[in-house]
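[User] Once you have settled down, look closely at the record that follows, and write a paragraph about the fold.
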Amino acid sequence: MTTPALQAYFKEAESWDADRSERFRRSAIAAWWAAAAGWTCAVATAIAIVCLTPLKQIEPFVVRVDNSTGIVDVVPVYTGGVGSEEAITRYFLSHYLTVCERFNFATAESDYEECGAFHSAQRNQAWYSQWTATNPASPLNVYKDGSSVRVQVKSVSFFTRASGLSDLAQVRYLKALRAAGGADEKFTHWVATMQFAYTSPAKDPKTRRWNPLGFKIVDFKSEPEVSLETATDKETHHEP
């Protein structure tokens, strides 16, 4: 038979056990909340770092100084993001300049016809006047002694007008003149400003073989780049 004192002891012991269980439950809940808060802070920190990563990127670039002219420009870096249209236009501009500014008697006729495939009607008239034999400055007359000229494109830069139209490009290139029977080349530096457009491809198969996309040179102006050394020499010896 259980005495009242023993019953009171059991009841008190039961209350202690209940209090201890409640404390454990509260401690577990607090621990879970602390862990959840820690994971939340860690995830938030990771997201913040990912969002700030573009602001911390360093994009190197190369500044090129031409040894002969002193012209300074930034070397374009291909990142794989250039659209196909710009890449094609860059190719056509470089190809046109390489073919149309060079001269070799063996390929002169073919080069003349190929360049015509890229011309607008107005540009073609200027091209004919430039090459006609009655023009003393025609390549046919200037290089009739057997000299040859090759072209090397250095850079192509595109410009956008205030209206938003992007139809202008500036191409820097080298001309290498080799005298008839000679081995050495004389280099000159040039810059060409070119206006271009895309039109319907020609119906003539020969023209379409050279220019399948209807790329046209609307306007063309090429000028020699002045060497800094030459400019300094002129200023030094200038007489009033």
Q: What stands out?
A: Helices lie at 4-56, 84-100, 108-116, 121-131, 139-142, 205-210, 228-236. The mean pLDDT is 81. The CA atoms of residues 9 and 15 lie 10 Å apart. The beta strands are 62-65, 72-75, 148-159, 168-178, 185-198, 215-224.
